[in-house]
Write a structure and sequence with these properties.
alpha/beta
């Protein structure tokens, strides 16, 4: 949607769908699904993907070249602020000074829920170090505002647990975050199917990030196509403004005057 770009850290992107690069059967499927999704920003787990740190192994950047996609290094697998900061500094070095990053500091390996005290600590260090930080966080309006005030360029509350496919379990908290944010709010984690993405956008989110919802589908490329359309449709519905809900009353869509026989 070029006439309605997503702007992050001063740069405009035509797609509001951001996608991950893990869990595909091979790099060829990864590239085909991402091309089909129309995504401009692709997130890469530095601890799990080779983007040059292992010269003898296949390099993901050969399939997803940085001159074609905005690579968003992330800290998946980090459980402390120190590990997250170290990982993103490595990513910046591997990507020739690339500043845009996704911070996530996990609380435990079972739920993958964010550790918010460590996330706040890491965000403060990274912002001071010159990073443009997009941050995975709990759907907590207060802590989301704290991250914005630290200087994060996008707030990324979870819809539900990472990889759960449960969709948006707390739309009210998301609305509170959206209504109080001055930076983009991008739903991250928990999307399972196209309707989840559309709902996120209809709520007023600026974008949706997903990985498993596409890579874990029976036909990832087809699901990537569905997600592209869902994000676009949800955004258009939000901009259009839905009709007012009316409880306990109907409202005919056709005129009630000038009826035949009246």
């Amino acid at each position: 949607m070029i006439n309605d770009p997503l702007v992050i850290a001063g740069k405009a992107y035509g797609s509001r769908l951001l996608v991950g690069t893990g869990k595909y059967k091979d790099f060829a499927e990864t590239r085909e699904a991402i091309d089909t999704s129309g995504a401009n920003i692709v997130t890469v787990a530095i601890r799990r993907s080779n983007i040059g740190q292992n010269p003898d192994e296949p390099n993901l950047l050969d399939a997803l070249p940085p001159d074609r996609f905005t690579i968003l290094p992330n800290t998946a697998g980090c459980y402390t602020a120190d590990d997250a900061v170290r990982t993103l500094r490595l990513g910046r070095e591997l990507l020739d000074g690339h500043a845009l990053v996704k911070l996530e500091v996990l609380g435990d390996p079972k739920s993958l829920f964010p550790n918010m005290p460590e996330t706040l600590k890491a965000a403060e260090i990274l912002v001071k170090d010159g990073f443009d930080v997009m941050v995975y966080c709990a759907d907590d309006p207060i802590q989301s505002k704290m991250l914005e005030e630290i200087g994060c360029v996008a707030i990324m509350p979870l819809a539900s647990l990472i990889g759960s496919g449960m969709g948006i379990v707390n739309p009210w908290n998301l609305r509170l975050i959206i209504d109080n944010a001055r930076v983009p709010v991008i739903v991250d984690a928990g999307v399972g199917t196209a309707s989840d993405a559309a709902i996120a956008m209809e709520l007023g989110c600026d974008g949706v990030l997903m990985n498993t919802a596409i890579a874990g589908a029976s036909q990832p490329v087809l699901m990537a196509s569905a997600m592209k359309k869902a994000v676009e449709a949800g955004r258009e519905a939000f901009r259009a403004g839905r009709m007012r809900r009316k409880f306990y009353s109907a409202d005919p869509s056709s005129p009630t005057t000038g009826l035949i026989g009246s």
